[in-house]
């Protein structure tokens, strides 16, 4: 299985089928699509792959249709002008399906609305009024081009917002930059540079000051050199004159992502992927574009083969430890890293949390059960040999399960405090994504409470 979130879609869809509601509140209908596929093909890993393929196909169709809408009046237009889909339709479709469905609707919204009028053009008097002989043609054109296409564009934009608000806000941001003359870009650049320093230092918020990661470096760490190649052509690439203004807006937006606007490194990475894919519908397909596409595809495939865990977790190594953990009678809640949690929850229908257990999690714990921790990245021997100042072992029980060790959460907290006091090298592993140590941020708690 490719995708670091794919099993979460399975968890949500199974919850819909079994209880009629989502496991975690979410207004996006994408989980209903997965639930429908489960009804047709059954609940399995293979059905999740079908969903990923369907998502990639949806992105491909939306790009082709959007390019067709914008090029239908072009002289010499042929099917070759639609080009070849970027490999990013598979990257996005397999890694971020929810975002991809929304992005497909946004791409169609752009296709139906283009050419997008600028604010200044609405007040321009350079267009002569229609003559009496051409008035009926003018009215028909207005109805076709403005009323039907613009209404359709708004319709698709609403769907993009419904599937994933972040994607709709991205589209709105591009539209705003499209309307702003380029002479104001330096001012926007300066404000964007200052923005991260103005965020409060509150990790519980959706935005906070966390500017120690350079976003383009983080993107390279997540996806390899292919993302740098695509980013370079996003920012410095060219297009046909009729697409120039929109193309410059997309390029400038991509350049702004150099700054740590969001503290989640992968949020800017996802936005960057979306911008690159949006650019595809404005690319003039020719020999040079074929060269760009070939190099991009080769670089992404190279990263997938040399560093596959950038795109997936080692799911093959999770079945045996997951099955053993699920069979522990008093295991009421498991704390584990994000990928293992989703896999474990989907395969064994047992509760798992990829955050430090908070008041809500503890209150929902079934009576007579305990909270366990799936320790990842620390050897069994290290845990077994650890003792406090009185030579008393920290762990009342340790179950070795390959790369994972199953311990009680209360024992793990004592052990982690001991590592902090000693400033041990193992603390870097004990307090990392491998072993969650932070509580759910406030905005996630609000989502569980209010569904937003």
From TrEMBL:
Q: Which keywords does the record carry? A: Membrane, Transmembrane, Transmembrane helix
Superkingdom of the organism of origin: Bacteria
Asked if Membrane is a keyword of the record, the answer is yes
- Membrane-crossing ranges are 48-70, 76-96, 103-123, 154-177, 212-237, 249-265, 285-305
According to UniProt, the name of this protein is: DUF2079 domain-containing protein
In its UniProt entry, the species of origin is given as Leptospira montravelensis
């Amino acid at each position: 299985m490719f995708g670091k979130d794919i099993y979460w879609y399975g968890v949500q869809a199974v919850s819909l089928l079994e209880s009629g509601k989502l496991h975690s509140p979410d207004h996006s209908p994408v989980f209903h699509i997965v639930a429908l596929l489960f009804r047709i093909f059954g609940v399995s890993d293979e059905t999740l792959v079908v969903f990923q393929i369907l998502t990639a196909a949806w992105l491909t169709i939306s790009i082709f249709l959007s390019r067709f809408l914008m090029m239908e009046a072009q002289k010499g237009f042929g099917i070759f002008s639609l080009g070849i889909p970027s490999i990013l339709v598979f990257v996005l479709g397999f890694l971020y399906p929810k975002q991809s469905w929304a992005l497909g609707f946004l791409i169609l919204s752009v296709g139906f609305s283009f050419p997008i009028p600028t604010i200044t053009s609405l007040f321009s008097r350079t267009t002569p009024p229609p003559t009496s002989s051409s008035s009926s043609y003018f009215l028909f054109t207005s109805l076709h081009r403005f009323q039907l296409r613009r209404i359709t564009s708004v319709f698709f934009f609403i769907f993009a917002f419904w599937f994933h608000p972040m994607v709709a806000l991205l589209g709105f941001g591009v539209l705003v930059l499209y309307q702003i003359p380029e002479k104001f870009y330096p001012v926007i650049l300066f404000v964007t540079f200052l923005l991260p320093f103005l965020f409060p230092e509150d990790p519980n918020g959706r935005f906070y000051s966390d500017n120690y990661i350079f976003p383009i470096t983080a993107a390279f760490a997540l996806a390899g050199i292919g993302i740098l190649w695509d980013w370079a052509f996003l920012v410095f690439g060219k297009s046909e004159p009729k697409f120039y203004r929109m193309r410059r807006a997309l390029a400038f937006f991509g350049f702004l992502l150099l700054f740590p606007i969001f503290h989640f490194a992968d949020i800017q990475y996802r936005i960057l992927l979306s911008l690159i894919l949006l650019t595809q519908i404005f690319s003039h397909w020719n020999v040079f574009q074929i060269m760009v596409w070939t190099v991009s595809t080769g670089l992404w495939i190279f990263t997938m083969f040399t560093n596959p865990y950038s795109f997936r977790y080692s799911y093959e190594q999770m079945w045996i430890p997951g099955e053993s953990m699920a069979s522990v009678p008093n295991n009421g809640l498991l704390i584990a890293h994000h990928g293992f949690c989703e896999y474990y929850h989907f395969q064994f229908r047992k509760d798992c949390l990829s955050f430090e257990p908070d008041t809500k999690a503890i209150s929902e714990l079934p009576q007579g059960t305990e909270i366990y921790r799936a320790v990842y990245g620390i050897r069994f021997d290290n845990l077994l040999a650890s003792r406090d100042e009185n030579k008393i072992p920290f762990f009342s029980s340790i179950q070795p399960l390959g790369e994972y060790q199953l311990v009680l959460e209360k024992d793990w907290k004592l052990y982690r405090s001991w590592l902090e006091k000693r400033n041990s090298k193992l603390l870097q592993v004990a307090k990392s994504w491998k072993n969650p140590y932070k509580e759910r941020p406030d905005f996630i708690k609000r989502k569980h409470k209010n569904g937003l």
